[in-house]
Amino acid sequence: MFRGLLIMAMALLLTSGWGTDTYSGSGSARPLPLQATNADASSSQHNPLAAPVQADPVTPAVPAVLEATPIKNSTLNAVPIQHLALPATVAETAVVQQVAATAAKAAKTVYLTFDDGPSKITREVLDILRKQGVKATFFVLGNAAKSHPELINAIWEQGHAIGNHSYDHDYHNLYSGFTAFWNQIKQTENVIREITGERPRLVRAPGGTSGHFDDTYFQLLNQAGYLVMDWTVDSGDSRRKGVPAAEILRESTKDLTSSEVVLLLHDGGGHGESAKALPQIIARYKAAGYTFKVLDDSVKPVQFRVSAKAAGLDRLKPSNAWIASNILPNVALFQPGRTLALEVGLLEAKLNPGEYSIINGQYMVPLRAVVERLGGQVRWDQTSRSGQVIWNGRTVTADVSGGELAVSLPGGAQEKRAARVEIIGGAIWVPLRELLETAGHPLKAISATSEERRVKAA
Ligand SMILES: [Zn+2]
């Protein structure tokens, strides 16, 4: 074990390019300001408090608003007709129609979607998809993902897409008000990020949005950067318990003429009949000329209309302050940008764009994410409104109301320093430099390339 660490340390020394960094720590008279080394350091794009949602919104494709019974998408018919600039003879018309039919056939797409997993059924579904050479989208539950990370990995490794289907699927909680729904989306997102390294942007409402979502749900999720996706065809596999495979097949393949089908299926526990129907569902779509694709941000979201029932529910709307703290900074999580690599001792953690910000030239980071990814622990103390960090043999307190970081040193002495400690999106954010220093990890080097920013500490 010890020898392993030594070898790792040596390897690190050999590969870390001493002297080539922007700054070199030891022996340098130059202070380490922990400043971003590039010109965009003060850009408001990185400032979650001034997240430019109004000025620079995430603009997903305009949602296709559908009735609970969806409308067919017929936009493709328009394409070949444009070539008809001159009056056509009967023969020419026939040719054009034939071309149109071929084009429409070539452009038919089906998105298979599986909700409520992962479960034992997921393995079966994955095997079938692999054999058929077909990709699908899995809207997973956070609690199931947490107990079966290996299934999330299997889905991910096979190249399927993963969407967010809430943490526990409890309608009563999810539709009691937007913040309850939001908390489950974020909780699930964090579980998935820990497994795959990526945050899903796709969200499917348990039970669908119809009767559940009002304008607040749609608007805030959209504003936060998520893509809410209902479906165009319901396989009926969760209409009641034990729907037989033959019925699932019939319902799933009722309409094989639409240019775009988002098919709702389930791979949660008890959905063995869906897996049984799957090979034939795939076969029929293939025979009808469909291509199988996974959902992503290039697909026009399919969304049901807000029902009178949902609009009439007397639910608490989040305050502007809550929106500013939770929704607005969330957008940055899905914007392209550089990762921030933190090399602390022998450990390394990466923060994706949106998981850190640069304010007045200083890196601000979420306390828990950084400390836990680097081997420490964080506990929130409600009474003192502070985060208690146990890391590197020290106890550091991040005090939100007092705006300071305090460290208890071995021997009982305490040191305090003023620091910008803030709550953003329900998490404590602290300045990286102050955190590392109070935790006994002095800075060694800071650098930036076009791909990533990097901070090294002892
Ligand atoms: Zn569901």
UniProtKB/TrEMBL annotation:
Which Pfam families does the entry mention? Cu_amine_oxidN1, Polysacc_deac_1
Q: Which GO terms describe its molecular function?
A: hydrolase activity, acting on carbon-nitrogen (but not peptide) bonds
Is Signal included in the keywords of this UniProt record? yes
Which BP terms in the Gene Ontology apply to this protein? carbohydrate metabolic process
Transmembrane spans: none
Q: Where is the NodB homology domain?
A: 108-293
* Bias (Polar residues): 35-47
Residues of the region (Disordered) are 25-50
Extent of the signal sequence: 1-20
The answer to keyword ATP-binding applying to this record is no
Q: Which key words tag this protein in UniProt? A: Signal
Per its record, how is this protein called by name? Polysaccharide deacetylase family protein
Q: Which organism is it from?
A: Paenibacillus agri
